[in-house]
Amino acid sequence: MISLRTMMMRGGTCSGMYLLKSDLDETGLEPDVLLSVILGSLDRRQTDQFGGDGSTTTKVAIVGPSTRPDCDVDYLFAQVDLTTLWVDWTLTCGNLLAGVAPFAIERGLVAPADPYTMVRVHLVNTGATVMVSVGTPGACLRYDADCQIGGVPQRASPIDLVFSNFCGGRTGQLFPTGSPVDLIGAVEITAIDAGVCAIIAEASAFGITGHESPRQLNSDTGLLDRLARLRLRAALAMGLGDARGYVLPKVLLVSESECGDIRSRYFVPDRCHTAHAVSAAICLATASVVPDTVAGRLIGRPSGARPIVVEHPTGTTMIDITRAGDSDLGIWAAVRSTAQKLFDGYVFADMSREPCLIGAVGAGVT
After folding, report:
1. Tens digits of per-residue pLDDT, 68-122?
2. Are 225 and 352 found together in one domain?
3. Which residues contact 189 (CB under 8 A, 6 or more apart)?
């Protein structure tokens, strides 16, 4: 049995475990095995583990001093897959990112200033950089205030995030296929690499309105099967290879919105998210400012108009997109989020379970 200092935080619409990289390194254990033991179990009830029973609660943020001179901290994201106990390091989480700056201040990596503290964060998984502004009146970190975001009923202190260098992080191109629109089978899609690799398609192409609840969509096995087959074909076209066992690319089904610019149902990748990922909202907003994409054609807004309001099952998310020059990769995105500290202490892991996990951890790797 080992103990590991940890903090549980809600970041955006997700919750996860926040660790100092130095604390993780001191265990001398492989992170893939350790995180699987702490957060995952083949028992669907997860009665002996620290994580929850879904992808939004089996997330880990690993934070340490930055390896880049232009940033203050590094943020490495890990997602534990509950079906295989495989730890996925290929993507990042914009929701947990909201808690990275407060965590860095809590652990003494960054000194607070008055009334705001600016923290430059390097997203290790994708190479993007984010400037995060946290309220610290009197040089004291504050979580309580009156800011509310979609998908979170409680109000909290606003956290402002400005993303740069987030386009082409995985493929080197904003549109990995070389085109803003492709035809996969009979469905027009936009394949895009902006914060997350994703494919965007109109909900109407699948015989749905896009207004359906996540529960309705997740019970539609025919729809999920069509999306899975579309995702595999699109992944090959994007140069991502065989996507079986991997969460990228994600899928966004879009439609006209009644309370925003565009409505989205976000799949991660084979279940509809109950709210929406920040990274996916940024991805969709980026596509929306390009007129020839599926999203751009749907909203029909003048080029350069901003911000973009994305409607999702629990509310809306506002993304401000700015293009810097003519390059597809020179795009900035700004979004407001919140975070809340939930627990600070030590988590215990029974490493005698390690031998029965090794096979399961490798099962997700193709």
Report:
1. 999 999 999 998 877 777 888 988 899 999 999 999 999 999 999 999 999 999 9
2. no
3. 181, 182, 183, 199, 200, 201, 230, 234, 294
Residue pair 196/92 in contact by the 8 Å Cβ criterion: yes
Q: Find how far residue 221's CA is from the centre of its chain.
A: 25
DSSP output for 35-96: HHHHH--SSTT-TTSSS-SSGGGSEEEEEEE-SSTT-SEEEEEEEE-TTT-PEE-S---HHH
Question: How far is residue 309's CA from residue 325's CA, in Å, rounded to a whole number?
Answer: 23
Give residue-wise pLDDT tens across range 195-250: 899 999 999 999 999 999 999 999 999 999 999 999 999 999 999 999 988 889 99
The Cα–Cα gap between 61 and 13 comes to 15
Asked if 336 contacts 159 with a C-beta cutoff of 8 angstroms, the reply is yes
331 and 352 part of one domain: no
Say whether both 331 and 346 belong to one domain: no
126 within 8 A of 99, measured Cβ to Cβ: no
Q: What is the CATH number of the domain that holds 352?
A: 3.10.310.10
Question: Cβ distance 230 to 251 under 8 Å?
Answer: yes
Peptide bond before 307: cis, by omega within 30 degrees of 0?
A: yes
Entry pTM = 0.84
CA 106 – CA 100 distance, rounded (Å): 10
Name the residue range of residue 305's domain: 182-336
Residues 348 and 310 in one domain: no
